[in-house]
Each structure stands twice: as C-alpha cells, then as structure tokens.
Amino acid sequence: MEPVIDQAFAAALYSEGDAGLDTGASLLAADPTADTELFRRGEEFVRRAWERGWQPADVVRVVRRELDETAAGLAAGLIASETGRYERLPPRWRPQLDGLPAAPPRNRPDRFSYASALLGLYRLLLRLPAIEPVGPPPGTSPHGLHLPPAHDEPRMLTRIRALLAKAEATGFPEEAEALTTKAQELMARHSIDEALLAARTHSKEAPGACRIGVDAPYETAKAILLDAVASANRCRAVWNSDLGFSTVVGFEPDLEAVELLYTSLLVQGTAAMTKAEAGQRAGGRKRTKTFRQSFLMAYAQRLGSRLAADTARVTAAAEAETESEAAGMAAPQLLPVLAARDMAVTDTAERMFPETTTTRVRGATDLDGWTHGTAAADRARMSGARPEIHGRRGNR
Questions:
Q1: Inter-residue contact 212 to 245 (CB < 8 Å)
Q2: Which of 92, 117, 290, 388 pairs with 50 at a CA distance of 20 to 30 A?
Q3: Are 266 and 274 contacting, i.e. CB atoms less than 8 angstroms apart?
C-alpha cells in the first residue's frame, strides 16, 4: 500500500485548489508516524531551492509575499534545520540566517492546521523557478562569481553603519543630511582605496552579486531608488518585479555600500513621507495612495539626479589627488582603474542577465506628493557621491 505521506503529497502538491490541501492534511493529521518524514521532505524541498539559485532570505521573502507570516515561519524552521547540517556556509548566508523569523511550534494549533500550512508551503517551494545564482549552494565549492572572503566586517563599514543608523534616528533633517553625507564620503574613500589597491597588487578579484528585496507597495519607486544608489556606487541593479527583488552586481566593497545606503535612504524617505502625509491629512486630504506613490517616485528620481550630478565632481577631485600622490612614481591612475572595474561589472551583469527589458514607469499624478518627495530627497542629498563611470542599466 502507498505510504500515507505519498498519498498526501499526491493529493496536495500536484493539484490546484484547497480541496487537495484539505485531503492531504487530513491524511497526515490522522497519522502521527508520518511527522518525521514530512519534515525531512520539507528539508529536501529547501535543498532543491538552493540548487536553483535561491538563498535563505529569498525563500522567506517569496513565502511571505505569496502566503503569509505563518508560512514564512515554517520555511524559516526548515531552513535552519537544513543548513545546520553544513560545517561551512557560503558568504552572506550567516546574516540571512540570523534574520530569519521564529519558527512556530509543530502541530499547533492542531495537527490538521499545521499539516495544511506545511503542504501549502511545500506546494510553493516545489514550484519555485530557477534564478540566477549569486553564489554557490551550501556544500559545494565556489565557482563562477567572485565570492567575498569570510571575515569580520571591516571597521570602515562599522563606522558607516553607525552613521546611517544615527541619520535614521534623528528628528532633525540637517543632522540627518550631515550624517548621511559623511557616511557616503567614507564609502567613496573606501571604494577608491580598494580599487587602487587591487590595481597595484594586480588582484584577480572579480565582481560578485547580491540580492536586495524590493517589496510592495510602491515597488517601482523603490526599484528606481535602488537602481540610482547602485549606479552611484559603480554597480548594476536588475529588478525582477515578479519575485520582488533586485540583483545588484559589483565589487564587494561597493555591494556593501549599496545595501547599506539603499536601506538607510528608504527608511529616511518613508519617515519623511509619513510626516508629510500626516500634514496633508490634517489639511483635509484623503488621496493617500497617489500622494505616497508620487512622493516616493520624486524622492527616487531626485536622489538619482543628485547622485549622478555629484559623480563628475567627486571623480575629478579624486583623480587630481591620485595624480598628485603619484608624481614621479609608477602608480596606477584612478580613471583607468575605475573604467576597468566598470567594464568588469558590466560584463558580469550581461553574462548573468543576457536578456533584460525596460519597465514602463507609471507617471506621478499628485503634485503635492511630488513636491514633498523632491524636498525630502534634497534633505537627504549626498554631497559626497561616489565616483563612477556610468554603464548601461536594465530592468528585468
């Protein structure tokens, strides 16, 4: 006779609708001896996700997006159990695992509900598509993309993180601007130093990639903001709107900068939007959605313009500094070094995404939202934008 677990899976995982889930859950709820095998097969589904290019944060994000928070917790429990079998994890995995939500207790609130939720999760995991890998799955040797070394966070990034945290926490726009500007200047100096060091030592370092969630609502504006931050930090961002993330390609110090700065600017922008919206509502306005959409679109567009405008000035200043230091010495010049790194990033991005499409951006329709968003971007401006040689950008 076919095992209960196989009967339940045949009913729930390979059919559409709730009826199959109910049938499968009933079979499992009536047979406690299937519990161990049920969880083991969940770990197997998670392992298959790694082989298709997914990482822990990606899986939890898509589960939360497609199902609910309970399912995200169930996925987190499977991920923690599955990854516990490896002696060494790929780079970037440990912070993702540390950020997983808590797993709910097994068989609660009752066996049927728990089995139904698990089967719904398994149905989703089984149908996850293959995506572009940004590193090796656990248990395999690194290959393809450059992987960052496994070491503690550099002191410079710790300082940058602290500055951005203060910028997010302060209620004074001028202080936030000064803190964010200082953080950006440190990022720029760190990136330039890394680029010149790599050139002097003939480093074989190659670009890598990471994925950053771009969550609803107003995901188009958020993707534009991330693209602007990535471009200003000599990276390429490719947005996958269907799966709710952008893949950012670049050298490791620049990837770290993009993630830190984008997260901070999004927090600052959201806080400014909430404050401006409260003022609008106090005046009798009710068009909340159009106001927010226009605000964030203006915020993203304005920051992109300012970052791009600052690029030429900062690049020229950095080039003059390196020329002065290199007088009479056989030292690399900054502009050719940056151009070579930009070309390497572009080549890597095009290998990962040979086909990209342009997304049509919906126009902003709320003048007040646009005006307030532009003003918020001006307050968060980056007077120390990172030097770059611009490459093409694409949306997926």
A1: yes
A2: 117
A3: no
